[in-house]
Sequence to fold (317 residues):
Amino acid sequence: MFIGIDIGGTNIKGVLTEKSGKILSFKSIPTEDKAENIEKSIYGIIETLATSASVSKIDIKAMGVGAAGSIDRKKGTVILSPNVKAWNNYPLVKRFEKVTGLRVFLENDATAALVGTWWQGPGKKYRNWLLLTLGTGIGGGVVIDNNLYTGRSGSSMEIGHMTISYDGKECSCGNRGCLERYASATALMEYVKEHAKKHKDTTLKQHLKDDTLTAEIVYEQALGGDDLAKNAINEIATFLGIGMANLVNIFNPEAVILGGGLSGACKLLIPRIKKVVNERALPGMKENIEYIALRDQEKFAPLGAAKLAINSLNANL
Fold:
């Protein structure tokens, strides 16, 4: 048995899976704001996953962890995680192995999501494709000629920190003008807050007042015709299209798969993204790309983390 954990800026998701990819149990909890509390959460998730599947912890061979941010896979360290601020040169593998007693393997969270999508999802249909994870921030991964590309240390494809405005909004990474400052779920919420006063009749004002606004609510109200919600979705989709046009010019993919919490809005996002890509990407690169919204996606990232643990453990035997 293997454990896969996906740690994002908002939630931690875990699966217990067999080597075949059959999921035996699943658990999701909010991400804590302190490193020691995240460690306690990981221990608790493992206990819950094992108990739910009536599995002894002795039978768990290893755990893969997909962590938000830039990592050093060989050192087992999270170098910087803009959306999990408790981690700064954080020795994740060392700490998690001490807390859990398991062999731990570290990967970037978006790469883990890509591997899960490749292993058990629509990614297995293509040889050259991109995954964008749209949530609190924006992550990504790429398969080139049926090979996973992760860069020198495992931190390639930090798509959310692609500069699209050289003197733009400040980002928590320390840079300015990063894509995720304009095209993430966080950016969507910021847009609504900044423009609410101009839309006196918007249905979103009460949610702002009650502090209950979510990206899902914005999407639902956009479908219902709310002008502020529609404008917010259009703004996000435009910037996603700009970022994606850059990626299309670089990678010439067969498909772009969209995952993460914001991908639930793809019914509205994808038409605008395609339009912007067609306006900005080069001829010969932008044609015949399939744009796919990942369905039933919450388990793909932890499943991919588990797959990476399976592969890493086998490689070390």
About this structure: DSSP finds ten helices and 13 strands in the chain. The domain at 122-293 is CATH 3.30.420.40 (Nucleotidyltransferase; domain 5). The chain has two domains: 2-108, 122-293. The two ends are 16 Å apart (CA to CA).
